[in-house]
Amino acid sequence: MFELLERLHASLPALAVLQLLPLVGAIALLRLGDRPLALVLGHVVPLVELGLALHLYRVLDVANPSFQFVERLPLVGPLTYHAGADGITVLFVVLTALTIALLPFYVRARGLEDQTRLLALLLAVEGLMMSLLVTLDLLWFALASGIELALVGYLVGNWSNSPQKDLAMLRFFQFQGVGLLMLLAGALIVAWAHRDATGHDWNFDVQVLAGQPISPQLGAVAFFLLFYGLGIRTPIFPFHGWLPTVAQHGNMAIAPTLLLGVKIGVYGLVRFVLPVLPQMATAWAPYVTGFAAAGVFYAALLAFQQSNLRLLIAFAVVSHTSLVIIGIFSLDAIAFQGGLLLAVNFGFAATAMMLMVGLVHRRTRTTNLARLGGLFDRIPLLALTFLVAGLAIVGMPGTPGFDAAHLVLEAGIHRFGALTTVAAALGNVVAAGFLLWAFQRAFLAPAPASRTVPVEPATAMELAIAATLVVVMLFAGFRMEPLLAMVDAPLKLLALRFGDG
Asked: Which of 323, 378, 400, 450 has its CA at a distance of 20 to 30 angstroms from the CA of residue 347?
């Protein structure tokens, strides 16, 4: 297979293929309708996309901090197709491809309705996510984000059985719409400042904008808009208000996976905001990390109060994303490494937990902790997958979160002193408590007397999904060196903007 990809890479623009293949697959699925071939194609295309992502990983020169596989095409006015990839890009591309490759099998295991249209939607979102990851143009990033979020918002309400699914979709569009407008406004301000300073045409290219000074006043406004716009979708405290409603009443696992499993918000901060506005990031870092430290505790304490497994995981995401933000805004190479690897670890582990909760819901028709219990004996591998994912989130040794959390805490002490770092570490201890408590309530506690129908054992498809998730998490945990090497060179180059190195 890799020989075929080598020939494809030599004859075609690799990043364009990475973006277009899922979109072409989505169109093909819609044209095929309910024919059996459509479901086969819906499973095969994400696997081929994963193969392309792994091929990029194989051919990437990890020692080169510059963008590779660069593609450029002028379009309309200031909008330019400019794509490139470095180690950071490829790390998130592989995460995206791996995550979405699992979703068609989950759709089949859950027996969701209208599977052809759902798989087409997943492929369209995957193509747009790949475009967000490889673009070097801030305007392209903002416009593609709008289309991608519109499709995910449609998914939030249209594949949910909750009576309040319309509320979930409305809340999603309210928050994400505001965030998108702020992201676009921030991009326009940065480009306008560049035009005003140089007298050149409007330009949204990150490589051009990163070398252009900006006045403190405009820089502060642009940083606020870009940070807020990306912070909503990440989500970080206090911009997370949409998540509990969407988690409780929206699509069970697929939409949250697309939103939270692939940390596009975190990626956007590292790819665009930090390089373009380093002075503003430095000035605002103490305030950002202060809110993040508060968010670790705030969300963790709220998680302890939840009686619904969906809501508990939602607040767990907010709590641990705050730890990612502390790492990124410690603003040195070690911190960037820890923050990005934590984001990837949290994204994949949260995906594993949400998929397992979805499979539990298929059997029990509930995610209320009081109505769960007694599940370990019936679905032990699904329970163990949930546990391993929870341990990965809190950074237990043997999981990818361990080394990443160590790097974040080490950088936090160096940058902000012991107080912020100790607060973050204690918040992580609280998180370990509520995740283990949730595991005990959902899987180990006695089965409720109200359950009269036996819980069916896991199917072969479900076992394969769970086993894949566990193997990937443990393999990444014991093999962190390649991941660290992949992002080392570009993050050291980014750190130079903040006087590190």
From this structure: 378
